[in-house]
Amino acid sequence: MSSPSTSPDAAKIQMFRKRLHEEWTGDRTVAAWRKWHAQIAAFTRGATEAILEAAHLRPGMRVLDLACGVGDPALSIASEVSPSGHVTATDLGPGMMSLAEELARKKGLTNIEFREANAESLPFADASFDVLTCRFGIMFFPDLSKALREGLRVLKPGGRAAFVAWGKKEQPFFTTTAGIILKHVPVPPPPPDPDGPSLFMFGERDRLRRALETAGFGNVHEEDRIIAGRWPSSVEQYWEQFTEVAAPFRPLLDQLTAEQRSQARAESLEEVKKFWNGQEVNLPLEIVIGSGMRP
Ligand SMILES: C[S@@+](CC[C@H](N)C(=O)[O-])C[C@H]1O[C@@H](n2cnc3c(N)ncnc32)[C@H](O)[C@@H]1O
Fold it and tell me: Residue 267 and which of 43, 177, 216, 240 are 20 to 30 A apart at CA?
């Protein structure tokens, strides 16, 4: 099904905002990302490499990273643009960013600052940044066109935006975990709202390209890529991490009885084991990379 060309209405957007705010800023989410951040960083390293490449960074640049979470890719960008460049890393809530800030201090990075900011209304003057980046955040913006117009506004003319999102749902990242849980929930959730935010929305080819063009970006590119999702510890820990970290799927997990949960776990471990190479899990992850420039 192709995406609609209209924006969702105001009441729907408000509902998405409330749900997403709860999912991403709640204590459980923050605690889970604190616990697993090092393994997640290793697992998604290919996505960081992809966004660094798409952003065309150079020392001295001023970069805005949206939805920075616990600091990927903002911390790597700060190293790339140093010593004279600067990164402003932003996120919806302070919880995840507090870890990013600690990690920046440990790495001795002095050219990065953190600021609470909703991507839909950025507290920055027009034309403030050379580059805007956002890794695994764009699919959570309730009013996507508003967020993209904001991104365009704060970029300097000729400035570049680079996004990385998940590709299509039918990939092992989904089918080995959430896909299995869905088979066990007593009341399956309704399909995602076609014009609302959802994890795999940019798996629909050209959707990201169209969204960037509609917002006014020029030189727009969209690319699908398979990266290696290398999980450096056990299959059991992969499942445990998923159940704690995956905020959008937590309401489903919470519906399961102990017995259903244990059955889902057993099935998931069996599927994930197919990607165990004797040392680590190696899942092929399908991502979408989108970029565009402010004319
Ligand atoms: C999957 S995490 C990605 C974090 C990090 N960029 C990474 O790749 O690991 C999604 C992040 O999007 C943030 N987020 C969701 N909606 C947002 C919004 N409207 N404005 C800013 N950040 C948002 C969440 O708080 C969360 O930190």
Answer: 43
> Ligand 1: does its nearest atom lie under 6 Å from the Cβ of 140?
yes
What atom in ligand 1 is closest to the CA of residue 47?
A: 8
pLDDT tier at 195, thresholds 50, 70, 90: confident
| CA–CA gap between residue 207 and residue 202 (Å, rounded) | 6
Which whole-number Å values give the CA distances from 232 to 39, 86, 100, 141, 277, in the listed order? 7, 31, 21, 31, 11
Residues 6+ apart with CB under 8 A from 134: 65, 66, 67, 119, 151, 161, 162, 163, 164
Model pLDDT for residues 210-262, shown as the tens digit of each residue: 999 999 999 999 999 999 999 989 999 999 999 999 888 888 898 899 999 99
User: Whose CA is closest to atom 6 on ligand 1?
Assistant: 68
Rounded Cα gap, residues 199 and 213, in angstroms: 21
Residue 134 alpha carbon, nearest atom of ligand 1: 6
* Number of residues that this document lists for the chain: 295
Which two structure tokens, joined as six digits, stand for 162?
A: 């680079």
